[in-house]
Design brief:
The protein folds into 2 domains: 2-54, no CATH class; 120-319, Up-down Bundle (Multidrug efflux transporter AcrB transmembrane fold), CATH 1.20.1640. Helix content is 62%, strand content 10%. It has helices spanning 2-6, 33-37, 51-54, 88-103, 119-149, 152-175, 182-214, 224-234, 236-250, 258-293, 297-302, 308-319, and strands at 10-17, 20-26, 40-44, 47-50, 67-70, 73-76. A two-stranded antiparallel ribbon has the order 1-2. Strand 3 (40-44) and strand 4 (47-50) form a beta hairpin. It is elongated.
Length: 320
């Protein structure tokens, strides 16, 4: 404390002289290492001990790397950085095992907290969000499609499009050399809502045309595969245009510079690849599934009429 008090400025009041008032200040703060060294640490029995007597004084940057607090108690921060090609989840598990072994040999009052900031937690949270979004999206697709189409086969075809589109997106990203990280998982989570759109549009039109073909006289009926192909081609331009309009909206992400561009670019790439995979699935796999699941003659004739909800909506629309 004496050394700290020696390096500081103080107020000395003021002095009146010849009608003038002069402020008195004590200038004791200095950056001169020689003067700092003469600061008294202890004085007793006529013996004075100065800083320069017990230490070497240098001016430099403060060394505070690693200092931290945890729950208002002193602590130390230790950072571990992985190699770029290392799997974060596998490495985190190995580190946790090693720290658990170290913890068992430490004193009881020393605790190692490994959950303050680590990438594995963010990755697990992103995976959990995708699972939740996938489950919620599937439930809503089932409810909406069943209410409007009243056909479990058409609903199943649309549901299949979601996981297949995500798998195709992951394989494509892996083929291009991209890794699955927090931002790319976030892009897939955002894209889930749009993945099923293309499949729904295609399935609905195919199902509609097949029902219209089923009630025609036998002589006028077309081949079911031809009906499915024509129905898919009929709305293909609309699907492609809608998909590319959404993709164009994400292109500005790739023009961001600095840290923002590096963070958001994987999100945009994952979203666009997922959406494009959904487009490919809707114009290839969806018609094929329709040819297997939606061509039963009895089913088409029984479900020729629209669902109760669609009929009421159409009547209301016509009335207004």
């Amino acid at each position: 404390m004496p050394a700290k008090q020696a390096n500081g400025n103080s107020s000395g009041g003021f002095v009146n002289e010849f009608g003038n008032e002069y402020i008195v200040k004590g200038i004791g703060r200095t950056n001169d290492v020689n003067e700092l060294g003469k600061s008294v640490i202890k004085s007793s029995s006529g013996k004075v001990i100065r800083i320069e007597d017990v230490a070497e004084i240098k001016i430099g940057a403060a060394q505070k790397i690693g200092d931290a607090t945890s729950n208002m108690k002193p602590g130390i921060v230790l950072s571990l950085a992985k190699q770029p090609t290392t799997n974060t989840l596998d490495l985190t598990k190995k580190i946790d095992d090693a720290i658990a072994e170290i913890q068992s040999n430490l004193p009881p009052d020393i605790h190692i907290n490994t959950h303050i900031f680590r990438q594995a937690d963010f990755i697990n949270a992103s995976i959990s969000n995708i699972r939740k979004t996938l489950l919620e999206g599937s439930i809503f697709v089932i409810i909406i499609l069943f209410l409007f189409l009243m056909n479990w086969r058409a609903t199943a075809i649309s549901l299949i499009a979601i996981p297949i589109s995500l798998i195709a997106a992951i394989l494509t990203l892996n083929w291009w050399g991209y890794t699955i990280n927090t931002m790319s998982l976030g892009g897939m989570a955002i894209a889930i809502g749009a993945l099923v759109d293309d499949a729904i549009i295609d399935v609905e039109n195919v199902f509609k045309r097949l029902k219209q073909n089923a009630i025609k006289p036998i002589a006028e009926r077309k081949d079911k595969l031809k009906v499915i192909f024509d129905a898919s081609v009929e709305i293909r331009t609309s699907i492609i245009n809608a998909t590319f309009i959404i993709i164009v909206a994400f292109i500005p992400l790739f023009f961001l510079s600095g840290m923002e561009g590096k963070l958001l670019a994987p999100l945009g790439i994952a979203f666009i690849v997922s959406l494009f995979a959904s487009l490919i699935v809707s114009i290839t796999l969806t018609p094929v599934l329709g040819s297997y699941l939606l061509t039963d003659e009895n089913m088409l004739q029984k479900q020729f009429k629209e669902s109760w909800l669609v009929e009421h909506l159409q009547n209301g629309y016509t009335y207004y």
